[in-house]
Design brief:
Elements: E1 12-14, E2 26-29, E3 35-38, E4 46-48, H1 51-62
Antiparallel strand pairs: 1-2, 2-3, 3-4
């Protein structure tokens, strides 16, 4: 069994691209890299990814691998 991640010192941040889209945002926890939540449900579930997976995702975003339109 794996231990749960300690999320107590969380510092949540929305993307600068999230303004004006009706609240459909994912927030990233700066204190726990790879941990995200739905900004509309801050007390809801959180997803935590390994460092390798999170870095691969960020690299894909920067490369345009996930177009929004």
């Amino acid at each position: 069994m794996s231990e749960a991640t300690d999320l107590s010192p969380s510092t949540w941040r929305k993307s600068s691209y999230s303004g004006g889209n009706g609240g459909e945002c994912v927030e990233v926890d700066d204190a726990n890299p790879g941990t995200v939540r739905d900004s509309k449900d801050p007390d809801g579930p959180r997803l935590t990814f390994t460092t390798h997976t999170w870095q691969a995702f960020l690299t894909g975003i920067k490369a345009g691998a996930f177009p929004t339109t």
